[in-house]
Amino acid sequence: MTAIKPDFITFTGADDGTRTEELLAFAGRHPKTEFGILFSASRAGTSRYPTLSWIRDVPRSLRLAAHVCGSWAATLAERGEQAEVEALIGGFQRVQINVGRAPQDLGPLVSFAARLGVDVILQSRDGNAFPAENRISWLFDASGGAGIVPSSWPHHHEDRLVGYAGGLGPSNVAQVVADLDATGAYWIDMESRVRNADDAFDLRLCDQVSRAVGL
Protein backbone atom coordinates (compact mmCIF):
# COMPACT_ATOMS: atom_id res chain seq x y z
CA MET A 1 0.00 0.00 0.00
CA THR A 2 1.39 3.40 -0.96
CA ALA A 3 2.13 5.74 1.92
CA ILE A 4 0.42 9.08 2.18
CA LYS A 5 2.46 12.28 2.28
CA PRO A 6 3.79 13.35 5.68
CA ASP A 7 1.64 15.83 7.58
CA PHE A 8 4.70 18.07 7.96
CA ILE A 9 8.50 18.04 7.83
CA THR A 10 10.76 18.84 10.77
CA PHE A 11 14.09 20.43 9.85
CA THR A 12 16.40 20.25 12.85
CA GLY A 13 19.60 22.15 13.57
CA ALA A 14 19.05 25.88 13.00
CA ASP A 15 21.53 27.76 15.18
CA ASP A 16 23.03 31.23 15.68
CA GLY A 17 24.25 31.18 12.08
CA THR A 18 20.64 30.99 10.87
CA ARG A 19 18.78 34.24 10.32
CA THR A 20 15.33 34.00 11.80
CA GLU A 21 13.84 36.16 9.05
CA GLU A 22 14.93 33.47 6.60
CA LEU A 23 13.10 30.84 8.67
CA LEU A 24 9.97 32.97 8.51
CA ALA A 25 10.28 33.38 4.74
CA PHE A 26 10.82 29.65 4.29
CA ALA A 27 7.78 28.80 6.41
CA GLY A 28 5.76 31.23 4.31
CA ARG A 29 6.68 29.24 1.19
CA HIS A 30 6.39 25.85 2.90
CA PRO A 31 3.76 26.15 5.65
CA LYS A 32 3.92 22.45 6.54
CA THR A 33 7.32 22.98 8.14
CA GLU A 34 8.39 22.55 11.75
CA PHE A 35 11.81 23.67 12.95
CA GLY A 36 13.49 21.43 15.52
CA ILE A 37 15.66 23.53 17.83
CA LEU A 38 18.36 21.70 19.80
CA PHE A 39 18.55 22.59 23.51
CA SER A 40 21.73 21.79 25.42
CA ALA A 41 23.23 23.21 28.59
CA SER A 42 26.80 22.28 27.64
CA ARG A 43 26.77 22.77 23.86
CA ALA A 44 24.76 25.97 23.48
CA GLY A 45 26.49 28.32 21.05
CA THR A 46 28.18 25.56 19.05
CA SER A 47 27.25 24.19 15.64
CA ARG A 48 23.62 22.97 15.62
CA TYR A 49 23.04 24.18 19.19
CA PRO A 50 21.88 27.80 19.37
CA THR A 51 22.59 30.10 22.27
CA LEU A 52 19.82 30.62 24.78
CA SER A 53 19.39 34.21 23.60
CA TRP A 54 18.82 32.98 20.02
CA ILE A 55 16.20 30.55 21.31
CA ARG A 56 14.45 33.30 23.25
CA ASP A 57 14.30 35.48 20.12
CA VAL A 58 13.18 32.88 17.57
CA PRO A 59 9.72 33.94 16.33
CA ARG A 60 6.94 32.00 18.01
CA SER A 61 4.82 32.37 14.89
CA LEU A 62 6.91 29.50 13.52
CA ARG A 63 5.99 25.89 14.21
CA LEU A 64 8.67 24.90 16.71
CA ALA A 65 9.82 21.76 18.52
CA ALA A 66 12.41 21.82 21.29
CA HIS A 67 14.81 18.89 20.97
CA VAL A 68 16.25 18.65 24.48
CA CYS A 69 19.63 16.93 24.87
CA GLY A 70 22.18 15.99 27.52
CA SER A 71 21.64 16.63 31.22
CA TRP A 72 18.49 18.64 30.60
CA ALA A 73 16.90 15.70 28.79
CA ALA A 74 17.93 13.26 31.52
CA THR A 75 16.41 15.46 34.21
CA LEU A 76 13.17 15.88 32.30
CA ALA A 77 12.86 12.15 31.69
CA GLU A 78 13.41 11.39 35.37
CA ARG A 79 11.57 14.21 37.11
CA GLY A 80 9.19 15.72 34.54
CA GLU A 81 10.55 19.21 35.21
CA GLN A 82 13.58 21.29 34.29
CA ALA A 83 13.59 25.00 35.10
CA GLU A 84 15.93 26.21 32.33
CA VAL A 85 14.03 24.34 29.63
CA GLU A 86 10.67 25.47 30.94
CA ALA A 87 11.83 29.09 30.86
CA LEU A 88 12.62 28.78 27.14
CA ILE A 89 9.80 26.74 25.62
CA GLY A 90 6.95 29.21 25.76
CA GLY A 91 5.44 29.20 22.26
CA PHE A 92 6.95 25.81 21.35
CA GLN A 93 4.31 23.26 20.42
CA ARG A 94 6.32 20.06 20.95
CA VAL A 95 9.25 18.90 23.09
CA GLN A 96 11.44 15.96 22.08
CA ILE A 97 13.42 14.38 24.90
CA ASN A 98 16.64 12.92 23.48
CA VAL A 99 17.61 10.15 25.87
CA GLY A 100 19.26 6.89 24.85
CA ARG A 101 16.39 4.75 26.06
CA ALA A 102 12.81 5.67 26.89
CA PRO A 103 12.25 5.72 30.67
CA GLN A 104 10.25 2.83 32.11
CA ASP A 105 8.02 5.26 33.98
CA LEU A 106 6.54 7.77 31.55
CA GLY A 107 4.40 9.40 34.23
CA PRO A 108 6.73 12.38 34.82
CA LEU A 109 6.86 13.21 31.09
CA VAL A 110 3.10 12.82 30.71
CA SER A 111 2.65 15.22 33.64
CA PHE A 112 5.17 17.62 32.10
CA ALA A 113 3.27 17.61 28.81
CA ALA A 114 -0.04 18.34 30.53
CA ARG A 115 1.41 21.05 32.78
CA LEU A 116 3.16 22.90 29.94
CA GLY A 117 0.55 22.25 27.26
CA VAL A 118 3.02 20.63 24.86
CA ASP A 119 3.28 17.32 23.05
CA VAL A 120 6.19 15.17 24.21
CA ILE A 121 8.23 13.06 21.76
CA LEU A 122 10.54 10.14 22.52
CA GLN A 123 12.69 8.17 20.09
CA SER A 124 12.07 4.51 19.30
CA ARG A 125 14.45 1.99 17.72
CA ASP A 126 12.18 -0.88 16.62
CA GLY A 127 12.18 -1.12 12.82
CA ASN A 128 9.00 -3.24 12.80
CA ALA A 129 6.47 -1.27 14.84
CA PHE A 130 6.04 1.81 16.99
CA PRO A 131 5.60 1.36 20.77
CA ALA A 132 2.01 0.77 21.87
CA GLU A 133 2.21 3.55 24.46
CA ASN A 134 0.17 6.46 23.11
CA ARG A 135 0.31 9.07 25.86
CA ILE A 136 3.30 10.54 24.05
CA SER A 137 4.46 10.73 20.43
CA TRP A 138 7.16 8.47 19.00
CA LEU A 139 9.87 9.28 16.47
CA PHE A 140 11.51 6.25 14.89
CA ASP A 141 15.24 7.00 14.68
CA ALA A 142 17.33 3.85 14.90
CA SER A 143 20.57 5.81 14.54
CA GLY A 144 19.82 8.21 17.39
CA GLY A 145 20.49 11.31 15.34
CA ALA A 146 23.57 10.00 13.53
CA GLY A 147 21.96 10.39 10.11
CA ILE A 148 22.14 6.69 9.17
CA VAL A 149 19.44 5.22 6.92
CA PRO A 150 17.87 2.19 8.65
CA SER A 151 17.47 -1.21 7.04
CA SER A 152 13.71 -1.09 7.66
CA TRP A 153 11.02 1.38 8.67
CA PRO A 154 8.16 0.52 11.06
CA HIS A 155 4.68 0.23 9.59
CA HIS A 156 1.98 2.69 10.66
CA HIS A 157 -1.75 2.26 10.12
CA GLU A 158 -3.06 3.72 13.36
CA ASP A 159 -5.04 6.81 14.32
CA ARG A 160 -2.13 8.67 15.92
CA LEU A 161 0.78 10.82 14.80
CA VAL A 162 4.24 9.22 14.59
CA GLY A 163 7.57 10.30 13.10
CA TYR A 164 10.33 8.88 10.92
CA ALA A 165 14.00 9.95 10.92
CA GLY A 166 17.35 8.52 9.92
CA GLY A 167 19.52 9.63 7.03
CA LEU A 168 16.78 11.51 5.20
CA GLY A 169 17.75 14.28 2.79
CA PRO A 170 17.21 15.70 -0.69
CA SER A 171 18.64 12.66 -2.48
CA ASN A 172 16.43 9.99 -0.90
CA VAL A 173 13.42 11.51 0.83
CA ALA A 174 10.96 11.05 -2.05
CA GLN A 175 11.84 7.36 -2.41
CA VAL A 176 11.65 6.71 1.34
CA VAL A 177 8.23 8.35 1.58
CA ALA A 178 7.03 6.29 -1.38
CA ASP A 179 8.32 3.09 0.25
CA LEU A 180 6.90 3.64 3.74
CA ASP A 181 4.19 1.25 4.85
CA ALA A 182 2.26 4.10 6.43
CA THR A 183 -1.33 5.23 6.01
CA GLY A 184 -1.72 6.93 9.39
CA ALA A 185 -0.63 10.50 10.10
CA TYR A 186 3.14 10.98 10.35
CA TRP A 187 5.96 13.50 10.09
CA ILE A 188 9.53 13.17 8.89
CA ASP A 189 12.56 14.70 10.62
CA MET A 190 16.08 15.34 9.37
CA GLU A 191 19.23 17.06 10.54
CA SER A 192 22.57 15.91 9.13
CA ARG A 193 21.62 15.94 5.44
CA VAL A 194 20.22 19.46 5.45
CA ARG A 195 23.62 20.87 6.41
CA ASN A 196 26.07 22.00 3.75
CA ALA A 197 29.78 21.28 3.33
CA ASP A 198 30.55 23.90 5.98
CA ASP A 199 28.25 22.10 8.45
CA ALA A 200 25.80 25.01 8.30
CA PHE A 201 22.02 24.59 8.39
CA ASP A 202 21.06 25.14 4.76
CA LEU A 203 17.55 26.22 3.83
CA ARG A 204 18.32 25.56 0.17
CA LEU A 205 18.66 21.86 1.02
CA CYS A 206 15.47 22.07 3.08
CA ASP A 207 13.72 23.57 0.06
CA GLN A 208 14.84 20.63 -2.08
CA VAL A 209 13.38 18.22 0.47
CA SER A 210 10.05 20.05 0.66
CA ARG A 211 9.75 20.13 -3.11
CA ALA A 212 10.69 16.47 -3.45
CA VAL A 213 7.91 15.48 -1.01
CA GLY A 214 5.40 17.94 -2.43
CA LEU A 215 5.09 20.11 0.67
The overall average pLDDT, rounded, is 95
Which stretches are low in confidence, meaning pLDDT under 50 for 5 or more residues running?
none
Q: Assign the structural class, choosing from mainly alpha, mainly beta, alpha/beta, alpha+beta, or little secondary structure.
A: alpha/beta
CATH topology: TIM Barrel
CATH class: Alpha Beta
Largest beta-sheet characterization: 8 strands, parallel, barrel
Helicity, as a percent range: 25-40%
- Order of strands, widest sheet: 1-2-3-4-5-6-7-8
* Record field, number of beta strands: 8
If you compute it from the alpha carbons, what radius of gyration comes out, rounded to the nearest whole angstrom?
16 Å
Number of domains: 1
For the termini, the CA-CA separation is 21 Å
Q: Multimeric state of these chains?
A: single chain
Describe the structure.
The mean pLDDT is 95. The protein has an eight-stranded parallel beta barrel. It has a single domain, classed as Alpha-Beta Barrel (TIM Barrel). The longest helix is centred in the last third of the chain and has 11 residues. The chain contains seven helices and eight strands. With 215 residues, the chain is of the alpha/beta class.
Give the tags.
7 helices, 8 strands, 215 residues, alpha/beta, eight-stranded parallel β-barrel, 28% helix, globular, TIM Barrel
